[in-house]
């Protein structure tokens, strides 16, 4: 939580630091389904490692980085604050991205979206097939590790496709509001699809949770 304050002397600085101390640590969110629920499209071993190891590591490292950042703020050490930015971006982004990703998937997913989201997809991409092809191509084309995204451009009032490198969070780095993220780090698919990323991307459309994506779209349009 943020604390707003005014001060006339350095003694008053105790107030904002107290606010920082009371911050809750980030925690690993539970998956809304079992590890094996997305089979055969994404197998249980991948889901277990991806959630309980990879995402958990981002959460732990984010908490460590924030603790160090809090100390640097308390000391007024700007150099240390700047040096911690990459760790905050990488682990903070990893936590944000995966928290969205798990809800974007569902054992009851697949098919096509309905309602307002479908209308917007047709308006901005011509057709659902065209949208699917574009997001797949952008995701396949990510060099090394990263994510393919469907985001909402609030200023322009339209849907937009984007790719982000590593764990760069979509909104924090592009301003687009994330609706649907596709993780194309090798840890998301290698145990099942080896180095054939296109096969993984073909399969993932069978478990996309369009209700969740539609709900995100409705929320950001308000």
TrEMBL record:
All residue ranges annotated as the Manganese/iron superoxide dismutase C-terminal domain in the record: 113-216
PROSITE patterns: SOD_MN
Catalysis performed (reactions): 2 superoxide + 2 H(+) = H2O2 + O2
Record keywords: Manganese, Metal-binding, Mitochondrion, Nitration, Oxidoreductase
Enzyme Commission number(s) of this protein: 1.15.1.1
Domain of life where this protein originates: Eukaryota
Keyword presence, Phosphoprotein: no
Database matches in SUPFAM superfamilies: Fe,Mn superoxide dismutase (SOD), C-terminal domain (SSF54719), Fe,Mn superoxide dismutase (SOD), N-terminal domain (SSF46609)
Binding site for Mn(2+): 50, 98, 183, 187
Keyword check for Oxidoreductase: yes
Gene Ontology molecular function: manganese ion binding; superoxide dismutase activity
Pfam families: Sod_Fe_C, Sod_Fe_N
Compartment(s) of residence: Mitochondrion matrix
Cofactor or coenzyme needed: Mn(2+)
GO cellular component: mitochondrial matrix
Family to which the UniProt record says this protein belongs: Belongs to the iron/manganese superoxide dismutase family.
Assembly notes: Homotetramer.
Role noted for this protein: Destroys radicals which are normally produced within the cells and which are toxic to biological systems. Destroys superoxide anion radicals which are normally produced within the cells and which are toxic to biological systems.
Record-given protein name: Superoxide dismutase
Protein's organism: Pluvianellus socialis (Magellanic plover)
């Amino acid at each position: 939580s943020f604390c707003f304050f005014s001060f006339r002397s350095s003694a008053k600085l105790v107030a904002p630091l107290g606010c920082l101390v009371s911050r809750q640590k980030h925690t690993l969110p539970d998956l809304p389904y079992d590890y094996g629920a997305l089979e055969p499209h994404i197998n249980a071993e991948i889901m277990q490692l991806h959630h309980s190891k990879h995402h958990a590591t981002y959460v732990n490292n984010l908490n460590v980085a924030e603790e160090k950042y809090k100390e640097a703020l308390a000391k007024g050490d700007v150099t240390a604050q700047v040096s911690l930015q990459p760790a905050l971006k990488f682990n903070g982004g990893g936590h944000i991205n995966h928290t969205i990703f798990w809800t974007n998937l569902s054992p009851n997913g697949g098919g096509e979206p309905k309602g307002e989201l479908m209308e917007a997809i047709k308006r901005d991409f011509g057709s659902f097939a065209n949208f699917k092809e574009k997001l797949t191509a952008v995701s396949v084309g990510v060099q090394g590790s990263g994510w393919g995204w469907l985001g909402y451009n609030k200023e322009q009032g339209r849907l937009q496709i984007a790719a982000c490198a590593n764990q760069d969070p979509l909104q924090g780095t592009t301003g687009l509001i994330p609706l649907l993220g596709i993780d194309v780090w090798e840890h998301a698919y290698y145990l099942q699809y080896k180095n054939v990323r296109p096969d993984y991307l073909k399969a993932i459309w069978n478990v996309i949770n369009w209700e969740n994506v539609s709900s995100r779209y409705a929320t950001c349009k308000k």
